Amino acid sequence: MLAVKDGCTAAANTVASGRQIPSEGGEFFGLAKAELRFPGFSVFDFGAFFEVGNLWLAMPTDLTRVRTVVGSGVRYVTPIGPLAFDLGVNLNPDRIINEPIVVAHFNIGVF
Prior knowledge:
- This protein is mostly beta strands.
- It contains 1 helix and 5 strands.
- Strand 1 and strand 2 form a beta hairpin.
- The chain is globular.
- The model has no long low-confidence stretch (mean pLDDT 84).
């Protein structure tokens, strides 16, 4: 990382300004999720979900280091495929990199 004139790295300045540092990626990804769907009204359904997973730079030696999210959303089935709008709550956000607590997600296709 490059140092800047005030002594902080570019990454530290990004975090200090309230922005997130993008993930650098990884070689191993694990994810498990469960969803309950409930009938709504008309063509809308509702869903509640729980997800657990992580992204590791290399093969993990400690599989207990996972991230957890819970949330809910609305589902709508169209002639061209399903649409979903979800709100997820990060149960343990990483404050060092300014992870948000709540994230919205829109999906078209299989959900």
